[in-house]
Request: fold
Amino acid sequence: MTEETRRFIELSDISALEFACKKCGTRITRSIEEAGKSLNGCPSCGEFWLQGQTREEFSINQLAKAVTDALLATQGRNFQLFVQIGKPEKK
Reply:
């Protein structure tokens, strides 16, 4: 016997992105609209994260924009769009 568990979220469930500092564990949650704004470093410990205008920062901006655009594109359509997510890590 095979058992499979799959997890999906609807795009409209994505309301924010969370950034966690690997050094001190501080977490910052930003709405999708604000997710791509500059994240130079951890506001708690000062650990360097991103320098403004980098490819990485651009990618985060694009991710947030893609979620917003896809959600708008599916409104009024005869389907829903879901994103499959992996299982949470066991601690």
The first strand starts at residue 7 and ends at 10.
